[in-house]
Design goal:
Blueprint (H helix, E strand, L loop, with lengths): L1 H6 L3 E6 L4 H8 L5 E5 L7 H13 L3 E5 L5 H9 L4 E4 L5 H11 L21 H11 L1 E6 L2 H5 L1 H5 L6 E4 L1 H7 L9 H14 L5 E6 L4 H10 L3 E6 H19 L2
Length: about 250
């Protein structure tokens, strides 16, 4: 059911950087298909990630975890906590991608170890969970370094990757043009990534960090279908700034 919801059509999610259950619940109940709990940037540690997984799922959205590193132990722990999948940073080789897949999937599809956890109600639904999770679990790899770009063909050949998501800041930085998204070299690399991914049964993903409907339209027209739109901190910051700007027009 998770994959049908996320990859049977265009899906739109967002990012959680604040370790706060209230804001996570608000975001989850707003209608996003999925929410990425961001352990790479921000203040979310393992314990807070566990809490946010629970909140996001119970509030009706699909909880994913963006890890701080490609770490099988950490992947196992967030999956046991009930995450429906992971977004793995700095996947630069096919070996990196396979390492992530192996950590998410149980044998024979992977190497995830068995253990009791919230994912199957602490054993109550263990048999049902292990029958379906290899098919239902979600693996998203981040293409965010020039080495990943150079190794993209072999990365895309790894079985069980559901989506790639381009990390524009790190990718441009690794090319020596940090943040210069209009640079011809960067645009050429992105276009090449789009071209290659479209040849596989893998979703194209991108994070529109500063929410813009114009950017969203452009990305959808390019073929992106797994789209992160904004994040909790930016929605809060932009919303406050817009509100106070309007207030100042009245209270002078």
């Amino acid at each position: 059911m998770n994959k049908i919801k996320l990859f049977g059509k265009n899906s739109i999610g967002s990012w959680l950087q604040m370790p706060n259950r209230y804001s996570a619940e608000i975001m989850a109940k707003s209608g996003f298909d999925w929410l990425a709990i961001d352990m790479e940037h921000g203040l979310i540690d393992v314990q807070k990630a566990f809490e946010l997984i629970q909140v996001v799922e119970l509030a009706g959205s699909i909880p994913l975890v963006r890890l701080n590193e490609n770490n099988p132990s950490l992947i196992r722990r967030v999956m046991d906590a009930g995450a429906k999948g992971v977004i793995v940073p700095m996947v630069n080789t096919a070996e990196d991608a396979q390492k992530a897949v192996d950590a998410v999937k149980y044998p024979q599809d992977g190497k995830r170890s068995y253990g009791l956890g919230r994912s199957h109600e602490f054993g109550k639904n263990f048999s049902e969970y292990i029958k379906t999770i290899n098919t239902e679990s979600i693996v998203v790899v981040q293409i965010e370094h020039i080495n990943a770009f150079l190794n993209l063909d072999s990365i895309l050949g790894v079985k069980s990757i559901d989506a790639i998501i381009i990390g524009p800041y790190d990718l441009s930085g690794s090319m020596g043009i940090a943040g210069k998204f209009d640079d011809d070299k960067f645009q050429e690399a992105v276009n090449k990534i789009i071209e290659k991914v479209k040849k596989h049964n893998i979703a194209l993903g991108i994070h529109i960090v500063h929410p813009s409907l114009d950017d969203l339209k452009q990305r959808v027209s390019q073929g992106f279908s797994f789209i992160g739109f904004g994040m909790d901190t930016i929605f809060l910051s932009d919303g406050c700034a817009k509100a106070i700007k309007e207030c100042r027009k009245i209270i002078k």
